Amino acid sequence: MRTRTLGRTGPAVSTLGLGLMGMSDLYGPADDAESVATVHAALDGGVTLLDTGDFYGMGHNELLLRDALRGRDRDRAVISVKFGALRGPDGAWLGYDSRPEAIKTFLAYSLRRLGTDHLDVYRPARLDPAVPIEEQIGALADLVRAGYIRHIGLSEVGAETLRRAAAVHPIADLQIEYSLLSRGIEADILPAARELGIGVTAYGVLSRGLLSGHWTPSRELTAGDFRGYSPRFQGENLDRNLALTDALGKLAAAKGVTTAQLAIAWVAAQGDDIVPLVGARTRARLAESLAAADVELTEGDLAEIEAAVPAGAASGGRYADAQLAHLDSEK
User: Fold this and answer.
1) How many angstroms from the chain centroid is the CA of residue 34?
2) Given this model, what pLDDT does residue 235 score?
3) List of residues 6+ apart from 162 with CB closer than 8 A
4) Rounded Cα–Cα distance for residues 71 and 234 (Å)
5) SS3 for 56?
6) Which helix (H) or strand (E) holds 103?
7) What is the distance between the alpha carbons of residues 76 and 166, in angstroms, rounded to a whole number?
8) How far, in Å, CA of 244 to CA of 221, rounded?
9) Quick one: pLDDT at residue 330?
10) What DSSP assignment string belongs to 174-229?
11) Bridge partners for 51 per DSSP
12) Could you tell me the mean pLDDT of each successive run of 10 residues in the chain, 331 residues long?
């Protein structure tokens, strides 16, 4: 697999990365053995960027990744970790904490769970409004100098926060949702990132499954699957969004690829500074997603995709309103 560099100062990574969240949390039950096998298949397929969070499954995701990397060359993996989300023993979301002392504590636990002496990219999961971003980045910069982390990233923040953060220390990448159905970064955030030399790792490239070509209106969701509360998966919103997916699917069929592959390839085609994260939980879904790296889109293809799924066409927000209060980005 080809590589791309995360911004001007970040590491070289595979064209596509693997997001591990769904192997532990928020998308219903997953099988640990299949999850580990999927990570192995990703590594064998040339994927180097592995994205996790210390709060995914309250540590389960990091322990899973440790199991998957056992016996593998640690230095061939680029491990990206998000921190700061606070959760209760029942899984409840309790806010965010990015105080310098909390950052060091979160990191210590992540290093132990992952069985490594350093992380390649470390980032606050969301903006903590109680701690100035300059203070957060300053604490992370201290950890870079101490050798515990290699690069600093950010997640789901806006253009002004990017500028303030970059004034303190180089930022490798911004992790943020970006897909045909979520294009809010294009107006201000993506231009700011490019101005500052900050790469983008795009999650949600299949819009939580809506653009996968595998979703049906009759699909029943298990308890704990957040899509049961996501506005885009409700009632008429779901019907309208699946109509957009159908239109994309017709273009994919004409090109001889799957709907998911076309959706992932579209994100990758938006710039060499963008690395799509695929959230495959099984080897079969992974194989389909990785094949998107070989899909070449012409200007004509891109125009047809834009006509089929224009910016702003999605029905419903990315999250319920109650989950957006902390975000400094697309609402």
Assistant:
1) 20
2) 79
3) 154, 171, 174, 189, 192, 193, 196, 198
4) 44
5) coil
6) helix 100-114
7) 27
8) 21
9) 39
10) EEEE-BTTB-GGGTTHHHHHHHHT-EEEEE-TTGGGTTSS---TTPPPPTT-GGGT
11) 19, 80
12) 96 98 88 97 98 97 98 96 96 94 98 98 96 98 98 98 98 97 96 98 91 78 69 83 93 97 98 96 96 97 97 78 43 33
Q: What is the DSSP letter of 122?
A: E
SS3 content of the chain, % helix, strand, coil (to 5): 45, 15, 40
Q: What is the model's pLDDT at position 226?
A: 65
Classified as helix, coil or strand, 301 is helix
Q: Which of 27, 56, 96, 203 is catalytic?
A: 56
Look at the block and give the residue holding tokens 């994205």: 51
Say how far apart CA 202 and CA 189 lie, in whole Å. Answer: 13
Measured distance CA(241)–CA(264) in Å, rounded: 17
pTM for the whole structure: 0.91
Q: How far apart are CA 44 and CA 33, in angstroms?
A: 16
C-alpha 73/C-alpha 49 separation (Å) is 13
Determine whether 109 is an active site residue: no
Question: Rounded to an integer, what distance in angstroms lies between the CA atom of residue 325 and that of residue 313?
Answer: 23
Query: DSSP letters of 236-277?
Result: HHHHHHHHHHHHHHHHHHHHTS-HHHHHHHHHHTT-TTEEEE
